[in-house]
Amino acid sequence: MTGLMDLIRRRITLDGPMSLADYMAECLGHPEHGYYMTRDPFGVAGDFITAPEVSQMFGELLGLWLVECWKQRDCPGNITLVELGPGRGTLMADMLRAARMAPDFLEALTIHLVETSPVLRGHQEKTLKNHTVTWHDSMDSVPQEGVLFAVANELFDALPIHQLMMTETGWRERMIGLDTERSRLVWGLSPGVPGLIAQMNPRLSGEANPGDIAEICPAGLGLARELGRRINETDGVGLFIDYGYVKSACGDSLQALKGHQYTDPLAEPGEADLTAHVDFENLGLSFRLTGARPAPVLTQGEFLGRLGLAMRAQSLARNADAARIENLQAAYDRLVGPEQMGELFKVLGVGSRDHPDLPGFD
């Protein structure tokens, strides 16, 4: 039994069943036992591999995309570059290296990382040791001045979600309680109608059948409203890449990953990564509420293809040995292949009211 399991059992015993969102928040962010607070989950030795770890090409193309957005806005001299959930700092390092082609852009930047994990902050400090970086626990402390350029890769999928189930008598929230022997965590349903329905895409209520599950991420929708407000007010941009679905739909997408294998989300709290697919339609609606303008969602394969991933791979392959070329091809296939990251991962670009058109999305 994990230390966090014991704490969660006691909490349920005292306070009653807990929501999935509360459970995810404890599992991922508990200061002593939380998954992200106690380890580096990335890479072969961890539990999963993200696109920046697959190849430098991913971050380089995103860095050049930011430069193009800067030029589109007549090269403002004060850019607040924010990455949310920056992992080991690999993506930021690759973006900044590619952006060296525009020294004035780099000169205009202040770099801010939103990261709560002390373990990952340590990695980021080493990776970005040649840059001046400010760390934040949330967007609340990121300076308001400057044109906001925000980037997040695989952030929204890790934010806590609520799950609602349609029953014969209407929506009920899925809750986590204890079995009769008070030893295992089990699923149950709330007795009353959850107020969370107001945050659901209203189309789902008309389409749902008994047994269907709808997922709502208040933390993600709130973050989208905050980012959208700043993007619109400063004439900034946002680029958000995650796995999920373009149109809101019912379905249970909660998953737990440990050692690159799926496992029971309730079995080992704090020992596995918990994620859920991102509802990009609902996320886009939150951005629109602020006046910001989200572009039509693209697949990762489409977006990287438009940015010139094939040409970048060919450039890196020049004068490379056979092993290097094979690795480049494998990375290319993983990033854009429809059976790998290319179709599952989506890209949401967000511009301001004054500059709604974004490079690669038109």
Structure characteristics:
alpha/beta, 9-stranded mixed β-sheet, 15 helices, 5-stranded antiparallel β-sheet, 362 residues, Rossmann fold, 17 strands
The CATH architecture of the domain at 37-158 and 219-245 and 277-351 comes to 3-Layer(aba) Sandwich
Q: Total helix count?
A: 15
Low-pLDDT runs: none
Global morphology: globular
Measured as a percent range, the helix fraction is 25-40%
Cα gyration radius (Å):
21 Å
Binned strand content = 15-25%
CATH class of the domain at 37-158 and 219-245 and 277-351: Alpha Beta
Overall pLDDT level: 92
Q: Quick one: how many beta strands?
A: 17
| Distance between the ends | 52 Å
- Largest sheet properties: 9 strands, mixed
The CATH topology of the domain at 37-158 and 219-245 and 277-351 corresponds to Rossmann fold
User: Which structural class best describes the helix and strand composition?
Assistant: alpha/beta
CATH superfamily of the domain at 37-158 and 219-245 and 277-351: Vaccinia Virus protein VP39
Describe this structure in words.
The strands form three sheets. Strands 2, 3, 4, 5, 10, 14, 15, 16 and 17 form a nine-stranded mixed sheet that branches. The chain is built from 15 helices and 17 strands. By secondary structure, it is an alpha/beta fold. Helix 5 packs across helix 6, helix 10 crosses helix 11 and helix 13 packs antiparallel against helix 14. 39% of the residues lie in helices and 22% in strands. Keywords: Methyltransferase, Transferase. This is SAM-dependent MidA family methyltransferase.
